[in-house]
Amino acid sequence: MRRLVLLALIGLAAQLVDGSLGMAYGVTSSSLLLLFGIAPAVASASVHMAEVVTTAASGFSHLRFGNVDKHVVKKLIIPGSIGAFLGAVFLGSIPGDIVKPYVSFFLLCLGFYVIYRFLFSDFAGSNNGKPVKMTSKFFIPLGFIAGFFDSTGGGGWGPIATPVLMSKKMEARKVIGTVDTSEFAIALSATAGFLLTLGWSQLNWQWVIALMIGGLIAAPIAAWLVKIIPSHFLGILVGGMIIMTNTKTLMAAIHVPSAGSSAIYTILGSLWLAGIIYVWKKSRPNHTGSAG
Predict the structure, then answer these.
(1) Residue 43 CB: number of other CB atoms within 10 A?
(2) Coil, helix or strand at residue 292
(3) Residue 202 has what pLDDT?
(4) pLDDT computed for residue 111 by the predictor
(5) By the 8 A CB rule, do 23 and 175 touch?
(6) Where on the phi/psi map is residue 94: left (φ > 0), alpha (ψ -120 to 50), or beta?
(7) Cα-atom radius of gyration of the chain, to the nearest Å?
(8) CA-to-CA distance for 189 and 83, rounded, in angstroms?
(9) Residue 256's pLDDT is what?
(10) Is 123 helix (H, G, I), strand (E, B) or coil?
(11) Which residue from 265, 260, 267 is spatially nearest to 245, judged by alpha carbons?
(12) Most exposed among 69, 97, 106, 118, judged by the fewest C-beta atoms under 10 Å?
């Protein structure tokens, strides 16, 4: 019973972060399940099953708060769903950790780029309210790659799609709401792929339901936070989350000593905190209660 309550709290915290930053539900939840000794494929399958419900609730909440670009959602879900389904089938035969360091390095670079854009440019108003012009040549590989790595790594749709869309000068809250809303289709496709390869019996339904309950409670709260928090502030949070998460993965892959890891975390954490404080102070005078 204690484990189920813990999973529900993890699901709540993970969805609160995911709904506010456009990432981290799958990464957080999968990490916990792996800590409990569950096989990677089963952990990813359990998380994606829970995400079918939590992403539906999150998407509905973001739609109500006006945080979604429906055009981008439509462009992402087809290639994303295909990638997620194939990734789920692929994970049954090849460990997803093999490619994780390479993806983490790519994301780390994007994290620094996102922070740079939010710190040194007028990012929030850069599109002047006009639709972002991106062609199918952009959405197809983005959706497919993000969906594929989401299934194989237990999480990756948000960490890949969110920074890439932000680099295209979309408004921060629109990126987060769009990514969270489109993730419903990705979770559904990944679940179908896992059920095809693993079967229903491999899933621990009590754990899945506990994750769902926590996520359902957090979904509307997170969508509301995105609506009221300044875009620049959200951008710095997203960039820092990307950097810290993927730095940990890379250091583990190359076996950095604990003393070196602590020093790196301290430096990056201090710089991230300084950036958060700087952007928060800068945005407060012009903050009128909305993130746009």
Answers:
(1) 23
(2) coil
(3) 67
(4) 76
(5) no
(6) beta
(7) 18
(8) 9
(9) 86
(10) coil
(11) 265
(12) 97
Contacts of 145 (CB under 8 A, 6+ apart): 83, 160
> Which three-class secondary structure state does DSSP give residue 37?
coil
Amino acid at 275: G
- Grouping H, G, I as helix, E, B as strand and the rest as coil, residue 201 is helix
Q: How many CB atoms lie within 10 A of CB 128?
A: 6
Q: How far apart are CA 47 and CA 56, in angstroms?
A: 14
Q: From the centroid of its chain, how far is CA 33? A: 17
Task: List pLDDT tens digits, range 194-213.
Answer: 888 877 776 777 778 877 88
**pLDDT surpasses 70 at 144:** yes
d(CA 235, CA 171): 9
Closest alpha carbon to 214 in 1, 3, 13: 13
User: Does the pTM of the predicted model rise above 0.70?
Assistant: no
pLDDT at residue 45 in the model: 79
Task: Work out the average pLDDT over 14-39.
Answer: 67
Residues in CB range of 84: below 8 A, 6 or more apart: 48, 147, 148, 150, 151, 157, 186, 187, 189, 190, 193
Q: Distance of CA 105 to CAs 17, 112, 160, 249, Å? A: 22, 11, 11, 9
For 113, other C-beta atoms within 10 Å of its C-beta total 16
Spatial distance between the Cα atoms of 249 and 261, rounded to a whole number of angstroms? 11
* 11 touches 213 (CB < 8 A): yes
Contact 184, 147 (CB under 8 A): no
CA separation for the pair 278, 263 (Å, rounded): 23
Q: Which amino acid is at 132?
A: V
- Tell the residue number behind the tokens 């932000």, with chain if given: 166
Q: What local confidence, expressed as pLDDT, does residue 148 receive? A: 92
CA distance 190 to 194: 6
Token digits of residue 256: 């950095």
Whether the CB-CB separation of 229 and 282 falls below 8 Å is answered with no
Residues in the chain: 292
Asked if residues 273 and 226 have their Cβ atoms less than 8 Å apart, the reply is no
